[in-house]
Amino acid sequence: MSSPWHLRAVPTPTTDQSQDITDRISDLTLETFRLNGRLLIVGDRLVAPLGLTSARWQVLGAVAYAPHPGPVAHVARAMGLTRQNVRRIVGDLVLDGLLELRPNPHHRRAPLVVLSPKGETAFRDAMQIWMPWTRLLADGLSPEALDTTIATLRLLRERLSIGEAEEEEDAQP
Question: What is the dihedral of CA 52, 58, 62, 63, to 10 degrees?
Fold first, then answer.
């Protein structure tokens, strides 16, 4: 069994160029953490009038944008969050009438999570509140710069996800 991905030895940079790249990755990581914090704060303020939080809005969005209904585990995986946290939020949203759980023909104990009509309305309203902010944030940014940023963040997320897949495989009997 191999070591968990986060415990494996990290090679030490050997050139000034590789040190520069690792410093930039560290800077990008810190900026991503800061951006995430700001998005959560702004998101909480924006959707509070709808009775939502950023976390609830995020779960509604994951369900709304999923290509087909899935169980909590699929929602959590799509969001990069833990199943336990998503399960708790889904439970709260079900109690509030924003989500519904439907029978899963593939797994009796893992119901499918779907938006209720009330959840569809809440998500649509949240997105209408968010749209003016997207225009404000996009001011002065080129589509090419945004595409490069998205591609870079996606690649880094995928590289980090590889370690999770290896860890899951190591945990199999």
Answer: -10
Q: Are the C-beta atoms of 59 and 89 separated by less than 8 Å?
A: yes
* Paired residues of 115 in beta bridges: 99
Confirm if 59 and 90 have CB atoms less than 8 A apart. Answer: yes
The string of pLDDT tens digits covering residues 15-73 is: 676 778 999 999 999 999 999 999 999 999 999 999 999 999 999 999 999 999 999 99
Identify whether the C-beta of residue 115 lies closer than 8 Å to the C-beta of residue 98.
yes
Residue 160, amino acid: L
| Residue 86 CB contacts under 8 Å (≥ 6 apart), including other chains | 59, 72, 75, 76, 79
Domains of the chain, CATH where assigned: 41-131 (1.10.10.10)
Query: Quick check: pTM over 0.85?
Result: no
Cα 135 to Cα 133: distance, rounded to the nearest angstrom: 5
Beta carbons within 10 angstroms of residue 77's beta carbon: 16
Kindly report the number of other CB atoms within 10 A of residue 164's CB atom.
14
